[in-house]
Design goal:
Layout: E1 2-7, E2 10-13, E3 18-26, E4 33-39, E5 46-52, E6 57-59, E7 67-72, E8 77-82, E9 91-99, E10 102-105, E11 109-114
Parallel strand pairs: 2-11
Antiparallel strand pairs: 1-3, 3-8, 4-5, 4-9, 5-6, 7-8, 9-10, 9-11
Length: about 120
């Protein structure tokens, strides 16, 4: 079993920054993909960014240039640095880990951006 615990969410004014962290524990395969997804009220959960064990990343178009995903393989931790936050970024942010076809999810952390 894999457990994911997110932290770093909160309330921030438009233009501000937040840094999310997600620590994975348990029986983690050596190669995996970790990422961040978000879900706003009335919307489906959407991909924000992912990063694999080798450091290859991908981002949603809406966050390119503003968000940066990174990871510490030794700590099995993934980070999301969010800059220039906009009210549209308000959502519950979920950490995700994928091993082949097996998916694990954290409980989510609320990010609220005020205008």
């Amino acid at each position: 079993q894999v457990q994911l615990v997110e932290s770093g969410g909160g309330l921030v004014q438009a233009g501000g920054s937040l840094r999310l962290s997600c620590a994975a524990s348990g029986n983690i395969f050596s190669f995996n993909v970790m990422g961040w997804y978000r879900q706003a009220p009335g919307k489906q959960r959407e991909l924000v960014a992912t990063i694999n064990t080798s450091g290859s990343t991908n981002y949603a178009d809406s966050v390119k240039g503003r968000f940066t995903i990174s990871r510490d393989n030794a700590k099995n931790t993934v980070y999301l640095q969010m800059n220039s936050l906009e009210p549209e970024d308000t959502a519950v942010y979920y950490c995700n880990l994928r091993v082949i076809t097996i998916l694990y999810w954290g409980q989510g952390t609320q990010v609220t951006v005020s205008s």
